[in-house]
Design brief:
CATH topology of the largest domain in chain B: Immunoglobulin-like
CATH class of the largest domain in chain B: Mainly Beta
CATH class of chain A: Mainly Beta
Order of helices and strands of chain A: EEEEEEEEEEE
Strand content of chain B: 25-35%
CATH architecture of chain A: Sandwich
CATH topology of chain A: Immunoglobulin-like
Oligomer: heterodimer
Largest sheet of chain B: 4 strands, antiparallel
Helix content of chain B: 10-25%
Number of domains of chain A: 1
Number of helices of chain B: 1
Strand order of the largest sheet of chain B: 1-7-5-4
Radius of gyration of chain B: 21 Å
Structural class of chain A: mainly beta
Distance between the termini of chain B: 39 Å
Radius of gyration of chain A: 18 Å
Largest sheet of chain A: 4 strands, antiparallel
Order of helices and strands of chain B: EHEEEEEEEE
Chain lengths: 127, 155
Amino acid sequence: MNEQFAPSERRQEMATRQSNQFYFTPLVDVQSTPENIVLRAEMAGVDKTGLEITVEDGNLVLVGRRSPLNVSGDPIYAERSAVDYRRVYELDPSIDTDKITARIEDGILTVTLPKAERVKPRKIALE
Amino acid sequence: METNRYQPHQQSELSAAFDRFVTLREEMDRLLGSAFGSIGRPAGSFKSWSPPLDVYEDKDNFTVVVDLPGLKREKIDVSLREQNLTVSGERTPEENPGEQGFRAERFYGSFQRTVKLPAQVDPSTVKASYQDGILKVVLPKAEAAKPKQIAVSVN
């Protein structure tokens, strides 16, 4: 039996442009448990106040805005990106969108997407 | 200033195989005049990860900033040898029992970055902090390396 891959990919580019603003596409691991789909996104420099997680038109939109870096002086060497993060996933209908939870710790955003009761594996009792 | 991205870690057989594939693809691209453009990753990028790093300078300090999301504080190692600052560590997956992965993009394992600062720093006053997945190391310049105001008298 095929497992439905719940959050399917919308955009895979390194950076995306959304109404004249550029976003960096964070790296994300997607995992599944019998109860949940778990997304873990790398958002260095984002704290709780910088997160905007929305569900609209069946899409899960993750936006992370970076806190100011508070570094004095001028950059003499730069590899890091300073733009905010954004990534969009299409939600499978089996996700219970009312019960989505998220937390961010050490720059890792963890989003837990609970599977609806009707799609969870269950034992059928024999009569 | 030089930065050093060498990776002294052991290469796994799988990553070596990916690298051979990438090298082959590059050779094919070269032969075909790069007909398919640059897709995928450069050779060498499968064996380990290399976090991005910035260096800032003001009058008194250098500040080195490294994006290290998802590291445990105790797994980050910062060391200074003369003007060379080395940041190393290891990232382990946040695995929970019963999870099955179906898409993995993030990098795990060891990393090491070394940056040579353009002037001497005072090793006794170096401070490092880690917040929201960002490591920040402030390295005060040694007295000898600070800019000095020299009064010039004009006769």
